[in-house]
Design goal:
By secondary structure, this protein is of the alpha/beta class. The protein is 42% helix and 18% strand. The protein has one domain: Aldolase class I (TIM Barrel, Alpha-Beta Barrel). The model has no long low-confidence stretch (mean pLDDT 94).
Length: 210
């Protein structure tokens, strides 16, 4: 199984519409994305099943991880590698019970180190912090400082994901601060060449880290 590290590509209802999503995700994987998350808060599960199966197959072909946002039932139905849960999504314990001990369960912790510590103790496989910059996807999300990652690295042993308004230009300080994964939506899917852009993100992780 791929590691929880590198470029974490997250789909978007507007930027990766269903009719082109598989092609776009394939390009990101070709460029080196190590994790793909299907994020769709609106569509019914029946409508997402076919595309989820396609994305799962693509991730397997590229030896990448396939995560589904929020929808534990959908993750179980397509045998995804795991789920990502926010504050208003299902409980970690519920996901673990439904998906089993081998499933990846990631948790959004925003800027809350206490929540992150609690989630690690409860069995989370990784935690995500952000938004680090103003995000087109969540324009009203509170912005947190990169120092959150530095503090989390000192207190936690599980992988850390950074999310929120991340671009190629502002990603390096987050990796230096301790992020194992960089989650990207807008900057990736709006690129003229998604594969080339993904490759540039992956290059950031091959450079020497402190």
């Amino acid at each position: 199984m791929a590691q929880l590290a590198g470029l974490y590509a997250i789909t978007d209802e507007r930027l990766t519409p269903t009719e082109s999503m598989a092609q776009q995700v394939a390009a990101a994987l070709k460029g080196g994305a190590r994790i793909v998350q299907l994020r769709d808060k609106q569509s019914p599960q029946a409508a997402l099943l076919p595309i989820a199966r396609k994305l799962k197959a693509l991730c397997e072909a590229y030896e990448a991880l396939f995560i589904i946002n929020d929808r534990i039932d959908l993750a179980r139905a397509v045998q995804a590698d795991g789920v990502h849960l926010g504050r208003e999504d299902g409980a970690l314990e519920q996901a673990r019970e439904m998906l089993g001990p081998e499933a990846i369960v990631g948790i959004s912790c925003y800027g809350d180190l206490d929540r992150a510590r609690t989630m690690e103790q409860a069995g989370a496989d990784y935690v995500a912090f952000g938004s680090f910059f103003t995000s087109p996807t969540k324009p009203h999300a509170a912005v947190v400082p990169p120092s959150v990652l530095t503090q989390a690295r000192q207190k936690l042993s599980i992988p850390l994901c950074a999310i929120g308004g991340i671009t190629l230009k502002n990603a390096p300080p987050l990796i230096e601060a301790g992020a194992d994964m960089i989650a990207v939506i807008s900057d990736l899917w709006q690129a003229e060449d998604v594969a080339a852009h993904a490759q540039k993100y992956q290059t950031l992780f091959t450079k020497d880290r402190p």
